[in-house]
Amino acid sequence: SDAAYSQRLLASAKSLYDFANAHKGIYNKGPISDATSYYGSTGYKDELCVAAMELYKATKDAKYLNDAKANFEGNDVAWALSWDDNHVMCELLLYEETKDNRYKGLVESFVRSYMPGGSVHQTPCGLAWRDQWGSLRYAANAAFVALAAAEDGIGGDQFKSWALSQINYILGDNRNHLSYEIGFGSNYPRQPHHRGSSCPNPPAGCGWNEFNNPGPSPQLLKGALVGGPGQNDEYADSRKDYTKNEVTCDYNAGFQSALAGLASMAKRGCLPNSPAPKC
After folding, report:
1. I want to staple 28 with a disulfide (CB 3.0 to 4.6 A). Which of 36, 55, 232, 234 is the partner?
2. Of the candidates 85, 114, 143, which is a domain's last residue?
3. Predicted pLDDT at 24
4. Contact predicate 254/81, CB 8 Å
5. Catalytic annotation, pick one of 151, 210, 237, 241
6. Which residues of the chain have pLDDT under 70?
7. Are residues 128 and 54 in the same domain?
8. Total structural domains within the chain
9. Could you tell me the CA-to-CA distances from 175 to 114, 206, 232 in Å, in that order?
């Protein structure tokens, strides 16, 4: 451990949090309004709640817990965990520290909305399909929440088993018998929608000819998660289809967090057997 570095990080976190509290607002409604069509924000209270809870965990200063409670907006079940919507993480972190069943109920309802019988569409092969753009991102993020909830005593093996089914789908238990994580296994996407991946080694040029190349991309984006299949498990490996083949940092965030959770549970011997694939 490095106590001095830890204190430096904590001081920076407090400073950033104070700045955010002093300048509340939606960034894409300011001078960078063009961001709206890319990663526009619909609110900030959920992010402030999560930040406050992380600071409370680090400091045990009650003001951060009170701030988090003040920024809690929950009455409705969250639509998704994503770059724009952190409500369910706010609720989970609040439950961890308060054991208030109001927060627990919202977390449990969120996960169950993604499970069979919930409001989220299920593909024939068992993927919780929330939306066509980054379909795997939403399923992986929900799987991460399910595992974190199970760690906190919510949902138990039922949530763990469902999370396993989603990650297993992503890694090959699907109609296409394809790992949607590039470089994992022998059958994975070869044409991600990613400029750098599509370019040959320098000094060779890179332009539309490389974009239109019908062959595999010359650079391997090992570990990247592509957007994913359609609502009936359909998928084509084509860099021209950015909806299904785009790769992004936020696509990987919940996915690798879910993998870390599964690895930890497997190591501790508290992971149920993998459910049988549907395809």
Report:
1. 36
2. 114
3. 92
4. yes
5. 237
6. none
7. no
8. 2
9. 20, 34, 9
Q: Are residues 166 and 98 part of one domain?
A: no
Give residue 243's pLDDT. Answer: 96
Per-residue model confidence (pLDDT) at position 25: 86
Domain end, chosen from 62, 83, 114, is at 114
- 237 is annotated as an active-site residue: yes
Question: In the numeric block, which tokens belong to residue 242?
Answer: 């950015």
Is residue 246 annotated as a catalytic residue, yes or no?
A: yes
**Residues 219-242: tens digit of each pLDDT:** 999 999 999 999 999 999 999 999
Give me the catalytic one of 46, 108, 173, 246.
246
Q: Are 68 and 100 in contact (CB under 8 A)?
A: no
Burial annotation 176-207 (CB, 10 A radius, 16+ → b, else e):
bebbbbbeeeeebbebbbbeebbbeeeeeeee
The CATH number that applies at residue 249 is 1.50.10.10
Domain that holds residue 106: 1-114
Beta bridge partners, 90, equal none
What pLDDT sits at residue 34? Answer: 74
